[in-house]
Amino acid sequence: MQSLLLHALKMLDVGKWPIFSLCSQEELKLIRQACVFGSAGNEVLYVTENDEVFVLGMNCSGCLGTGDVQSTIEPKRLDSLCGKKIACLSYGSGPHVVLATEEGEVYTWGHNAYSQLGNGTTNHGLVPCQVSTNLVNKKVIEVACGSHHSMVLTSDGEVYTWGYNNSGQVGSGSTANQPIPRRVTSCLQNKVVVNIACGQMCSMAVVENGEVYVWGYNGNGQLGLGSSGNQPTPCRIAALQGIRVQRVCVLQGWGTHSFSGQLCQEPDDHLTVAQSLKKEFDNPETADLKFLVDGKYIHVHKVLLKIRCEHFRSILNNDDEIIEMSEFSYPVYRAFLEYLYTDSIRLPPEDAIGLLDLATLYRENRLKKLCQQTIKQGICEENAIALLSAAVKYEAQDLEEFCFRFCINHLTVVTQTQGFAEMDHDLLKNFISKASRVGAFRN
Fold first, then answer.
1. Statement: 4-240 belongs to CATH 3.30.70.1400
2. Domain named BTB: which ranges (predicted)?
3. What torsion do the CA atoms of 39, 42, 43, 47 make, to the nearest 10 degrees?
């Protein structure tokens, strides 16, 4: 999710990345720039010495830009980007990809459920397309991506954002998603920005005098403002007064730290039990069972599944080798199986509802709680009613109360959405009754 200067990723031995084992030695020798991305490092974009652009890997949400969503174990050339001289690239959780060329053009593709591609739609982008709306005659020199929002910096020091905005990460002053690039103004109106970065659901910018401005999700105090309330517009970090900052990045020095322990430990060859289990997930060399979901295999170990899940204790047989699964999508079922190995989930909020359905069906109460936490992070006015409906359906009481409170706090906007207009009759009656009891309709 961080902005990646491809020149900085020039490595002496790209073959150390597992994904490059699919390339021949002749192909590896030609690589000049490379970026490995995706939640498991299963996708890669690389540039050769003669400025040809190739992609390889899983292709989740069409993030390889090949025109389809089919995985590829052979490098495919992206003709539309060949010769463009890629300057910087960033990617989100979907993943979606944003890159800028040396000429300052911006191209996006991949996951687009929240308009993070900036093309005014929510259709996934299967090929790289130039983003021109509000960026005409602008030269983009830096790009950054959060989970589902995008940000660019122009050569004249202006910042433009678009995409998911449930926590104010777009900096528009509202929590409505932003379908096309919009200039971030407010406190940055007359400032010259020199550097940008994105967290998962927050954004930050450094101006030419070294001040740092932040906005977006702040539930754990990660913005460094001395509070835990979300910030819908840029706000200067007063605690850095007198310190001239040059660059910002996505590491957190305050608030919740998602990568705790990974950046500052002494090298240690010893793996804990938890680390060993995590490493073995989807390992075809040691697995004794494969799940076939949406035409893709997930490799697992019967004994671990039986230890971790009551559902599997009752259905697995010793002679099972392949089990075909059609009830749930590949991202959802993969996330569930990975949870059994790691006790955590890695899934976008929009897919977490499917995982909540699975957790309810399999009676996995801890997983159900984790799903609710993830779904909460993805709530906005447009989907609040849908999430409330899902919470009621799957008897997720904590999520139901959270969604209800969100709807009450954003009642005017929520009641004008398509979701509210199509709300189930019984759910609508209960909603109005409960809203009345908490005084939502008082003048």
1. no
2. 287-349
3. 120
Query: Is residue 328 within 8 Å of 356, Cβ to Cβ?
Result: no
User: Which ranges of 300-443 does DSSP label H, i.e. alpha helix?
Assistant: 302-308, 310-315, 330-342, 349-362, 365-377, 384-393, 397-409, 411-414, 418-421, 425-437
pLDDT tens, position by position, for the chain (443 residues)? 444 444 434 444 677 778 888 888 888 889 988 998 876 778 999 999 999 999 999 888 899 999 998 989 899 999 999 999 999 999 998 899 999 999 999 999 999 999 999 999 999 999 999 999 999 999 999 999 999 999 999 999 999 999 999 999 999 999 999 999 999 998 999 999 999 999 989 999 999 999 999 999 988 888 989 888 899 999 999 988 887 787 776 554 444 333 333 333 344 556 678 788 888 899 988 999 999 999 999 999 999 999 999 999 988 877 888 999 999 999 999 999 999 999 988 877 778 899 999 999 999 999 999 999 888 888 888 889 999 999 999 989 999 999 999 898 888 889 999 999 999 999 999 999 998 888 877 65
Phi/psi at 418 (5° precision): -65, -35
Tokens of residue 87, six digits: 């300057």
Say how far apart CA 394 and CA 90 lie, in whole Å.
Answer: 36
DSSP bridge pairs for 428: none
- Cβ-based burial of 35 (10 A; exposed 0-12, middle 13-18, buried ≥19): buried
